[in-house]
Amino acid sequence: QVQLVESGGGLVQPGGSLRLSCAASGSIFRVNDMGWYRQAPGKQRELVATITSGGSTNYADSVKGRFTISRDNAKNTVYLQMNSLKPEDTAVYYCNVKGVTDLHGSYWPLDSWGQGTQVTVSS
């Protein structure tokens, strides 16, 4: 079993900042890619940013220059620093962790999602 615990969402005014965190725990052998996705009402879930175990990052065009993804490999935690927030950034943000689980010596692919955290940008 792998658990992802997200935190850091909330209400912020346009131009403001928020920092999301997502900590993975449980039967983890190795964490590879970590990422953030978001889903606005009536829209499909979309990629926000991803980061590899080596630190290579990828961003959606809509957040480039405003959002920064980072990770702490020792803590299996991924962060999303969001600056210059806009009303169109309003969504539920989900973290995703890919890697390998260790279940009593058996190794299985890991592709797990957090419970989601609401980010609302409004004046």
Characterization of this structure:
It is built from no helices and eleven strands. With 123 residues, the chain is mostly beta strands. It is elongated. The N and C termini lie far apart (40 Å).
Our Rg estimate from Cα atoms comes to 15 Å
Helix content: under 10%
Total beta-strand segments: 11
SS-derived structural category: mainly beta
Number of helices: 0
Instruction: Describe the global form.
Output: elongated
Strand content: over 45%
Regions with little confidence, pLDDT below 50 for 5+ residues: none
Mind describing the biggest β-sheet? 7 strands, mixed
**Helix-strand topology string:** EEEEEEEEEEE
Q: N- to C-terminal separation?
A: 40 Å
- For the residues shown, what is the average pLDDT? 96
Name some characteristics of this structure.
123 residues, mainly beta, seven-stranded mixed beta sheet, four-stranded antiparallel beta sheet, elongated
Summary of the model, kept short:
0% of the residues lie in helices and 63% in strands. It is an all-beta fold and 123 residues long.
